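Re: the pair you flagged

First of the two:
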Amino acid sequence: MILAFAATAYSQAPKLEFKASGFIDMRTEMWRFNDNNHFAYYPERNGIVDVTPVVSRPNGGEWNRTASYVEQRGRLRFDAIMGKELSGTMFFEMDSQTWGDNTGQTRNQVGPWGADRAGLEIKNLYFDVAVPYIPVPITFRAGIQPFGIRSNMFWYNDGAGVTIAAKLDPVQITGYWMKGMEGKIATADDVDVYGLQASAKIGAVTLGGYGFYFNMRQYGVNVSTNGTAYGLSADSNQSQMWWWGLYADGKLGPVVMNFDFVYDTGKAKHKFQPYPDVKFSGWASRLKIDFPWEMFNFGVVGSYGTGSDLRKTSRSGLPNSSVVDPNYAAAGAVSSKVSGYVVPPFSETGSFDESEVFFASNITGGFTGIGYSGSGAATVSRGSAGGLWLAKLYGSYKVTPEFKVTLQGLYIGDTAMHGDTFGTSLDSVGSRKNNSEIGWELDLINQWQIYKNLTFKFGGGVLWAGDALRYYDAVKGTNVKPATPWYFGTNLIYNF
């Protein structure tokens, strides 16, 4: 009887509904970060620790200088919907890293004179199906899709795979399989990801948990060190990593609460040489509380991510790679343990937009900020939460229904051991100094809803740098603190 009635329910012939949506924006940015993040995040920002690009250290091209540019992003999404049971999605993205792009590339470089660049990126390509003949509501998604699990702390990635979700009120259970990389097609040398997430709404609070296993059988925690992959001459390392997380969202009386805790564990090993394995074990947590009151909103945020021991960790975390501390590296010490919290390869955790100067800007949603990391890096990396802690206090006021102002202040600290996550200062014997204060930051953010579909954001901030942002100047032979970092940005967004 169940099969008969289910077949009848799915035998309807709904009409095709076609929808288009997306946005086009224009962003202007000016900053002095003493760090070439916006343009160098592809190769240089992939390290687990010591993420500051060499070019941006003292005497580098960006040291204590002001950067300014205009950039642009557009997204276009098409949905072909056949009732509640079936739909397909095609999602495209176009980027100009700066107006006047002139690097000879196509991806992220559509803004040079003459334009006509082949910069249309396929972000998503998938279909959703309501599984028939089953009394429990189950949906099936296959294709290149967004895998977003607590994306500001753990994982966001667009990739190929399968997602299956079952709704058993009040619990929803979702299973994931993702093909991260395919090596030789007749050899088990791939990157496969398996995961499970469960959540339930209890009263006004949603509670959830997840576990993910990354079986990186050929590429290890680094996808490739020489730019070639797919079984030709990729890394000779492999790794197995786990991430476990808990979260809670919802209202507790008059306040709104968001909580995350995530733990990583695993190891990396060489496939052919008897190098010692590198063990991974770290965690990060974040708590946000909002108190809305009439036209105001007041809030606090606290976050902590474990840092690495620079006498036990290399930048890559690969077996037999030299540790960060120069004295210990000279003595032949190699990476043995990564105690700092890390996020998976290609995880885009840049949405950790807690401030304008140090992290990714909330105004522009760009790739700026000294502490910004995890934007699709091809390696395991510290993300934006590992190696630091922060305390944040903020308040916003709706001056009019269309205009909102937010003022926020942060105190940011460093959790690395025997060195700093960002700074490179040395002590009297040439080892890394261990400083604790990254600095104080003050930001002002304005949001103006000009029309229903047109929003203008503008604002910025300043960071009073602490000793954990001191760098060693090899020319002067001393530690130096950068000029005060600051940021100002605007973003005009048309949503449709």
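Second of the two:
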Amino acid sequence: MSYDAIGEAIVTLTGCTSASLSPSSGASPLGTGITFTASSVGCTAVYEYWLQWPDGTWHLIQPFPTGMTWFWNTTTGYSKGTYRIHVWANNQGADTSVWEAIGEATYTLT
């Protein structure tokens, strides 16, 4: 058997390789606002923000696809304590049922 032509393609699959949040930690008085900014490496990302309350429960705050910032208005509905913030980063157009990279911050409301 012989071939008249043969083709080849190299495909590189990419996704978000890391994500981070700024500020990564801090403290503010209850009732102030804090702006978190996400960044990622390896992709053109969309983001989803999660907040863990001091009692350990997780709450979806801002779903995919959102911008890279989240303004946390702590005026109502929150109590003093330490919160964990997660940002999930996914390549734009990728499956958003799972995350590709995650960034984390810890913030205390005093």
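The first strand starts at residue 18 and ends at 22.

-B.
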